[in-house]
Structure formats: structure tokens, C-alpha cells
Amino acid sequence: MIKSKLIIVLLLVSSSVFCQKSTLIQNINFRAKELKHYLNKSEDSLILEAEYSTIYSVNIFNKNYNTSIEVNKNKTVIPISNLDIGRYVVEAILRDKRIIITLLRNEPFLDPPKIENLISEKRSYLLNYKKAIASKPKKIEKKSTYLYWVYSVVNSGPFSKKIKKMANLDDAERMIQRNQLDIKTLKGQSNILIIWEVYDKKMFFKHKVLDKDYLYRKSPYFNSKPYYTTESYGLEISSNY
To answer: Which pLDDT band, with edges at 50, 70 and 90, does 128 fall under?
Structure first.
């Protein structure tokens, strides 16, 4: 009887977790009491608030992602809608302690379709319903199956966000377009983006962990010549990545 009740409770908890886009597992350790940590109503931002101390920085990472955000105040709101689905460790650095929190990203955040677009699509469908013509099949361009190692530093006012992660080609191209726009602005002039093409993800990570200067060396597992750098777009950079 007790066993069956326990199973029901676990099923209810797991189903409630997967109904949420994001889940924050509270740190109930007494040392973490001074840091309030919770998600906003839309579950796309993490809110951290220290009662008696300063939050110096926040690190968010897992095996494929690593970002560090400078805070230097007692409260911060960190967007998490850009995080891929998965489990993340959130490390808040306070004056005399580090507080660890677990963040689960369960579902992607999708932009709702605009009503104007839906009406336009429906009108187009009705107009062309009786005019269906067999069209020639389009040639499908073969996309690169390689992954890309990304090092990014984004400066936005009081915040400086550092990202190290693996990305696919679409993500890499989006980051390049964003970087090219950002560095034309006053705030974004000091932004940095460097992207390397990775041929073997497993071996790349293995060597990178063992050798901190691995990205400077020639290797069969990645192209040591960056796929893109902010420098190649007209700015000189100097940083450890």
C-alpha cells in the first residue's frame, strides 16, 4: 500500500516537472538560506536575491555549456530562455561562499505565431486551393554535420557575460550575425566572438580538458584556424578561450 502511494506521488511530481518549461530545484542547505532563488512566472528568467551579501558573479554550466555573468549587487535577473533543454548547474558566488542550485530546462520557448501571419497564410491557401500546380522538387543543400566550439564575451552595460559552448551551424551563423550588428554599437564594441569548426566532439573535449592551450595547436579533431572571429570583421582581440 505504502509502495503504491509512493509510486503515485513520484509520477505526479515527474509529470508536473515536465509540464513546466523550466524547473529550479531549491537548495535547502542552511548556508543557502540567505540567497533567495526562484523563477519568474513565465519561467524564462532566474531571479537571485541575497539578503545580507553581494552576489559577485553567477556561473551556469553543464558538460556542453559554460557561461559566467558578473553581477556585483544583491539582486539579479538572468534570462534562461536561450538555454538548450537539459540539466544545468547554477553557481552563485557570494562574499564568503558558493551556493549551488540545479536548473532544469524542460521545453524550448517558442514565439507565438502572429495573428496577421495566420490570416495571411489562410487567405493564401484559399486563393491557391484550386490552382495547385506540381512544382519541380527543390534541391536540398547538404548542410555541414560538423559542430562548432564557441567562445563569446558580451558586454551589456553593467553586465559582462562569457559563454563557452558547442553549437550547430545554424546557431553559429545566428551568433555571427548578432556579433556583426553588436560591434557597430557603442556598447557592443568590446564584444568578442570566436568560433572553431569541430570534427570530433568527443576527442575535442578530451584533449581540451587535458591541455589548456589546445585551441592554439593543430589537431585532426578541429580546425585550429577559426571559422569566424570578431578580429576578422575588423577588430583586434586578445583573450583566453
So the answer is: low
Query: Does residue 140 form part of some domain?
Result: no
Residue count (the chain) = 241
d(C-alpha 85, C-alpha 158), whole Å:
28
Produce one character per residue of 183-194: b if its CB has 16 or more CB atoms within 10 Å, e if not.
beeeebeebbbb
Whole-number Å distance between alpha carbons of 55 and 115: 42
Phi (first) and psi of residue 215, to 5 degrees? -70, -15
208 and 152 part of one domain? yes
Range of the domain at 222: 147-233
pLDDT value at 15 more than 50: no
Amino acid type, 105? R
Residues 37-93 pLDDT 10s = 999 998 899 999 988 889 999 999 988 888 889 899 999 999 998 888 899 999 999
Claim to verify: residue 98 and residue 162 sit in the same structural domain: no
58 by Cβ neighbours in 10 Å (0-12 / 13-18 / 19+) ranks as buried
CB atoms within 10 A of CB 198: 22
Give me the residue label for grid cell 572571429.
229
Tell me, yes or no, whether 67 lies in a domain. Answer: yes
In-domain check, residue 169? yes
Strand-strand pairing, 86-93 and 55-62: antiparallel
Mean pLDDT, residues 184-198: 86
163 touches 151 (CB < 8 A) = yes
Q: Please name the residues in contact with 230: beta carbons below 8 A apart, sequence gap of 6 or more.
A: 179, 183, 191, 192, 193, 194, 237
Q: How far apart are CA 139 and CA 130, in angstroms?
A: 26
